[in-house]
Write a structure and sequence with these properties.
With about 110 residues, the chain is mainly α. About 70% of the residues lie in helices and about 0% in strands. The chain contains five helices and no strands.
Length: about 110
């Protein structure tokens, strides 16, 4: 499984939760629970956390570390949304989250003129 597919799985779960009407804090709690559970399942987590995807030997560990990193990133993004959602009143929460995803895709792509 690739990094992008793992990240898409986490993002899809967040979008589905937002569309169901769950609060941001509920989604953050769910993601934090997933982080804790995955950390328990990886024995040498502290040693491999800062390694690149390709440097982690086991497929299960690679998946777990990538999943944890994406969940942590989304918890921060949801916190940002919670603080700043009043500045984006014309967007629903799922739309605002998709804007965050779009910004990330632009930052990764070669299409940026700067």
């Amino acid at each position: 499984m690739t990094v992008d597919r793992i990240n898409d799985m986490v993002d899809r779960k967040v979008i589905e939760s937002l569309q169901k009407g769950l609060s941001i804090s509920e989604i953050q709690s769910d993601l934090n629970l997933r982080i804790r559970n995955y950390k328990k399942s990886i024995s040498d987590f502290d040693d491999i956390y800062n390694l690149e995807f390709s440097e982690i030997s086991g497929a299960r560990q690679r998946y777990g570390v990538t999943y944890i990193k994406q969940c942590e990133k989304r918890v921060k993004d949801l916190n940002w949304m919670l603080i700043r959602k009043s500045n984006f009143k014309r967007y629903t929460l799922p739309q605002l989250f998709k804007l965050i995803q779009f910004k990330e895709k632009l930052l990764k792509s070669e299409y940026l003129p700067f």
